Amino acid sequence: MPDLKACPFYLSDEDAAWVNETLCAMTEEEKIAQLFCLITYTDDENYLKYLAGGLKVGGVMTRTMSLDELCNTVTRLQSNAKIPMLIAANLEAGLNQACTTGTRVGCEMGIAATHDVHYASELARIIGEEASALGINWAFAPIIDIDYNYHNPITNTRTFGSDPALVAAFGKAYVEEVQKHGIAASIKHFPGDGVDERDQHLLASVNTLSCEEWSKTYGAAYKASIQAGAKTVMVGHIMQPAWSKRLDPSLKDEDIRPGLIAPELLNGLLRGELGFNGLIVTDSSTMAGMGTVMPRERAVPLTIASGCDMFLFTKNLEEDFGFMRRGVEEGVITRERLDEAVTRILALKASLGLHKKDNLPDRERALKVVGCPEHAATAREVAEKSITLVKEEKGVLPVSPEKYRRVLVYKKEGQASAVGTGITSGACGRFIDMLREAGFEVTEFVPGGGWEGMAAPVSDITEKYDLILYLVSLATKSNQTVVRIEWAEPMGADVPVYMHSVPTIAVSLENPYHLLDMPRVKTYINTYGGTEPVLRALLEKLLGRSAFTGVSPVDAFCGKWDTRL
């Protein structure tokens, strides 16, 4: 059983007594229900009453809603719960990921590009102030994955970058600050994403580092946040073969499992080597990674039997509850393991003081603090300090309508929103409008017809335009396998080929690695987002009214020699 008085719970005798008394008073069915953290996209009263009062689940994660809907959701959940509930949200970049009017401070990579750990604390402070007013008490953040592989389609700007020391420092700062506001941090995604180029949403991906390499990098980042008091760890659909085999030499390759069903990683590495005493929650169980390894009826109870304390979401509510219940009945999950998991769930709630208050939103305070001007000012500050001039052709910057009146814009934009950010497409169009308002004559490139011998003449570009601007907004998203620029037909009609004749600037509003696909562009900028503050700051920098001060948290040259030309 966990030490309730030790880090990260630090319970008093009174609080520990509440945990033990509550556990003893629970039926087995109530204990099983506490293992589940479900999800809601709605403030529907009947559905929320069913989750809280009918099923009696331990927690619920909310997706993005209006402020009123979020207040309704939290109120209906907590008012109908016998045991106070954990209310979670993906709070990586700001409260906009939970509330439509919440502040988006900046993605983690944008925060890191300021090169000032103060802004990791500011991100957490703003999230803490806004989320606590709405009754949210659990942040599925920070991400302390390390973006080692620029091909990875899911980590990318959601991480603090590829420098393990920077990731550790920024993650620690987030944890320390957000938990001051009564919100549990959940460091993720153990044992560490960002090495494999594949997406753990779609398969069980692999962290291929040696034990020694892992300990110096991911292990150091986890240890920094654990020692800072992180209350929870989220475990991914990610394998770490080196540690699995060191801790259990009997394992064959085919027996190696992703973290959320790997007892040697959960108990031997996370709890043992790293000394984590808090709550372990699975990543979304609806992701395919777990299912690619074993049948779901086995995997569902094995997450708890292996050492996770809470099960995130369900694929089919009734079926997954049945799988978990059967796991207890058949001894896959022992009664002792069930009690241990529920003890940690209750201890987390007690450490947040949920058993001593009504946990309802403070709508009046929320209206004052959520998306307030002071928080918006910090978001503008982050945008100003993070935008990074990766490479520059002498004499091209700054731009002005007098210097480059006729601008040809090549727009490369995805249609889906970024993973967990709440940001949708359309940033390129908004920036084009800003350019026109600033006095530029902007033409958007449209691929023409014609194959060999029939294409438009080069002079159609070189004689008609003073500046070429590439605007690329391709964000990471679930269920994709690559984030690369797809050039237009015929024969790469929009590939950068005129930069030798017309000054050319490329701006990536999301993925920082697009030099891979346009290596010889001589002026390249990363902004790590396409929000209004970022776009305004970008325009000011292009016009020469503001200096570029961002420091790239990753190798934007992708390790290629030609990207530096």
Features:
six-stranded mixed β-sheet; Rossmann fold; alpha/beta; about 575 residues; 18 helices; 2 domains; single chain; eight-stranded parallel β-sheet; about 35% helix; TIM Barrel
Task: Please give a structural write-up.
- By secondary structure, the chain is an alpha/beta fold.
- It is 36% helix and 12% strand.
- The strands form 3 sheets. An 8-stranded parallel β-sheet has the order 9-7-5-4-3-2-1-10.
- The radius of gyration is 25 Å and the shape is globular.
- The protein has 18 helices and 16 strands.
- It folds into 2 domains: 13-365, TIM Barrel (Alpha-Beta Barrel); 377-564, Rossmann fold (3-Layer(aba) Sandwich), CATH 3.40.50.
- The model has no long low-confidence stretch (mean pLDDT 96).
Write the layout of secondary structure elements.
Layout: H1 13-25, H2 28-34, E1 36-40, H3 45-55, E2 59-62, H4 67-79, E3 86-89, H5 108-113, H6 118-133, E4 138-139, H7 164-178, E5 184-190, E6 205-206, H8 211-227, E7 232-235, E8 238-239, H9 241-247, H10 263-273, E9 279-282, H11 296-306, E10 311-312, H12 317-329, H13 335-351, H14 363-369, H15 373-386, E11 388-391, E12 406-413, H16 427-437, E13 441-444, H17 459-462, E14 467-473, E15 504-508, E16 524-526, H18 532-542
Parallel strand pairs: 1-2, 1-10, 2-3, 3-4, 4-5, 5-7, 6-8, 7-9, 12-13, 12-14, 14-15, 15-16
Antiparallel strand pairs: 11-16
Strand count: 16
Total number of distinct structural domains: 2
For the residues shown, what is the average pLDDT? 96
Oligomer: single chain
> Count the helices. How many?
18
Quickly name the level 1 CATH class of the largest domain: Alpha Beta
- Supply the CATH architecture of the largest domain: Alpha-Beta Barrel
Shape: globular
Reported for the largest beta sheet, the result is: 8 strands, parallel
Q: What structural class do helix, strand and pairing data support?
A: alpha/beta
CATH topology of the largest domain: TIM Barrel
Unreliable stretches, pLDDT < 50, 5 or more residues?
A: none
Q: How widely separated are the two ends?
A: 59 Å
Helix content: 25-40%
Largest sheet, spatial ordering of strands: 9-7-5-4-3-2-1-10
Overall radius of gyration: 25 Å
- CATH H-level superfamily title of the largest domain: Glycoside hydrolase, family 3, N-terminal domain
